[in-house]
Design a protein that fits this description.
Elements: E1 3-5, E2 7-9, E3 12-14, E4 19-23, E5 30-35, H1 39-54, H2 56-59, H3 62-78, H4 80-91, H5 95-119, E6 124-127, E7 135-143, E8 146-150, H6 156-169, E9 173-177, H7 184-196, E10 203-205, H8 214-219, E11 226-230, H9 233-244, E12 250-253, E13 258-262, H10 268-280, E14 290-296, H11 297-313, H12 332-347, E15 351-354, E16 374-377, H13 384-387, E17 394-400, H14 403-411, E18 415-416, E19 418-422, H15 426-435, E20 440-443, E21 458-459, E22 462-463, H16 468-475, E23 476-484
Parallel strand pairs: 1-5, 8-9, 8-11, 9-10, 11-12, 13-14, 13-19, 14-17, 16-17, 19-20
Antiparallel strand pairs: 2-3, 4-5, 6-7, 7-23, 12-22, 15-16, 18-21
The structure holds nicotinamide-adenine-dinucleotide.
């Protein structure tokens, strides 16, 4: 019998009478059915989350709550292989990458935010008063309530726990809507919640799509007190409209069109290693990845040549095979979108340095959503592939001649998520980093993350910051208490 990915509501798995297929991205075979939550299931999930705030969860001391989150992290680690296989079947990401990044980071999210919560300061002011006796003001941190968590498919477990962990650490309850493409790890996490004794209703999962489905039902629900979202900018705008009804706070982590900037003085070995990862990791389905690459003219030919070699070394294949370095795209639909940009690049006159199409795969994988890693040159910033987020394993490489010029070109976008600068000139690194309009700037590295740091996008890449104490700012409210002495 096909596996059914059920909703997780009030501590129990809940089926529905409306199912849709889940396909494995690497061979397009149906690997299960997803039970789509309707309005009734979303209402039940929100009601359970609301009730849990008033139950034991709402009464626990911080220490007790955090103890449960540490236990949850340990339980994820104990079920490591179950999570790894679930994530691999959902996404097609090579298993060794999932073992290295997604699952350890998922577990770490619960530990890190429990640690942060233990040390988060409050504020205290001594106030003078006209009568001379004074007053003291201090702030209490309270959970915001029921948080709606709307997730994408590209690194599902890591990105979902990035939001659920701080929300729970702060004492909230959650209703998670995973992407319709990746139901598995969010569903599995319910088992871990029950295993460690997190009370029913604290963590709920409802499956389905966006408009007229579970996503919309969650974001428009009047008992959802705050909404945290990761996904496309266009979807984020729709969710902000929904959140405006009831004036609910939002945290938005959205799309990007991230520039990489390579100065000719950079260490080229490090550049190629870091840049090829930033272009091709997870088949280019990383919001922080590089899709526009600016190379100082003296280094241009060498970078293009070496990036081509790096792209052609990538081994696509069965994600369970330890020699596979790149998996497929998430779905046939997403592949069609990426291929439409591959065609557009050629129509606009790009030189295809490598890739540009569908690779030949063995018969058992031929129906998967494969595309070739692709490097283009020959177009400038006005090209469609230089302006729109593609979210595939591809990059347009363009030469530049001066520091001011490249900063202006890098900033000439409606997005502002991340940027990467490669140089051995320390002063220049600081100068350029300060002028780039993005939430994150990496210098001589990429994807190096300290979970305590502020994470988020400028311009249309995001609203608000998560990470470390910044997450706590979103998932809690400060209440000031003023005491007249
Ligand atoms: P998406 O916007 O299509 O979907 C994200 C989620 O929103 C899904 O669960 C979807 O069902 C739901 N949704 C869609 N319409 C909705 C609606 N009207 N109301 C409520 N929910 C709705 O994004 P995706 O294709 O899953 O993910 C890829 C995108 O995510 C890319 O743009 C990428 O850059 C972005 N992303 C950003 C970050 C970041 O940290 N900034 C991280 C990862 C991915």
């Amino acid at each position: 019998m096909a596996k059914i990915f059920q909703n997780f509501i009030d501590g129990r798995y809940v089926d529905t009478d409306k199912h849709f297929d889940k396909h494995a991205p690497y061979d397009n075979k149906v690997i299960g059915q997803i039970a789509e939550a309707g309005k009734a299931e979303v209402d039940a999930a929100v009601a359970a989350a609301k009730a849990a705030l008033k139950g034991p969860w709402g009464k626990y001391t911080i220490e007790k709550r955090l103890e449960l989150l540490y236990a949850l992290a340990d339980e994820i680690t104990r079920r490591f292989e179950d999570f790894a296989i679930a994530e691999q079947q959902d996404t097609g990401i090579p298993l060794h990458l999932i073992r290295h990044v997604a699952i350890p980071r998922g577990a770490a999210n619960f530990k890190v935010f429990a640690d942060v919560m233990k040390t988060v300061p409050t504020e205290f002011f001594q106030t003078t008063t006209p009568d001379g006796t004074g007053a003291i003001n201090y702030a209490l941190r309270r959970p915001v309530g029921v948080v709606g968590v709307i997730c994408p498919w590209n690194m599902p477990f890591l990105l979902m726990t990035w939001k659920v962990a701080p929300a729970l650490a702060c004492g909230n309850t959650v209703v998670v809507k995973p992407s319709e493409e990746t139901p598995a790890t969010a569903t599995l996490l319910g088992e871990c919640m029950n295993a460690v004794g997190i009370p029913a209703g604290v963590y709920n999962v409802v499956h389905g799509f966006g408009p007229n489905s579970a996503g919309e039902f969650v974001t428009t629900h009047e008992d959802v007190d705050a909404i945290t979202f990761t996904g496309e900018t266009r979807t984020g705008s729709a969710i902000m409209k929904a959140a405006a009804v009831g004036a609910r706070p939002v945290s938005m982590e959205m799309g990007g069109k991230n520039p990489g900037i390579i100065f000719a003085d950079a260490d080229l070995d490090a550049v190629i290693e870091g840049t090829s990862r930033s272009c091709f990791l997870n088949t280019g389905q990383v919001c922080l990845g590089t899709e526009r690459l600016y190379v100082e003219r003296p280094a241009f030919e060498a970078v293009v040549e070496r990036l081509k070699v790096a792209a052609e070394k990538i081994k696509m294949g069965n994600p369970a095979d330890s020699t596979t370095t790149m998996g497929p795209l998430i779905s046939q639909e997403h592949r069609e979108k990426v291929l439409s940009y591959y065609r557009k690049a050629v129509e606009e006159g790009a030189t295809v340095v490598t890739g540009g199409g569908i690779p030949e795969m063995p018969a058992d994988l031929a129906s998967g959503s494969w595309v070739q890693p692709t490097v283009w040159t020959g177009l400038d910033d006005s090209a469609v592939i230089a302006r729109e987020e593609i979210f595939g394993p591809c990059v347009l490489v363009m030469p530049f001649d001066g520091e001011d010029e490249v900063i202006e070109r890098a900033n000439n976008t409606r997005y502002g998520l991340s940027a990467t600068v490669w140089t051995t000139n320390l002063s220049r690194a600081h100068r350029v980093a300060a002028k780039l309009e993005s939430g994150i700037v990496w210098v001589n590295s990429w994807f190096l993350r300290d979970l305590r740091t502020a994470f988020g996008g400028s311009k249309q890449s995001g609203i608000g910051r998560e990470g470390g104490v910044h997450s706590l700012e979103f998932y809690t409210e400060l209440k000031n208490v003023c005491i007249k002495l």
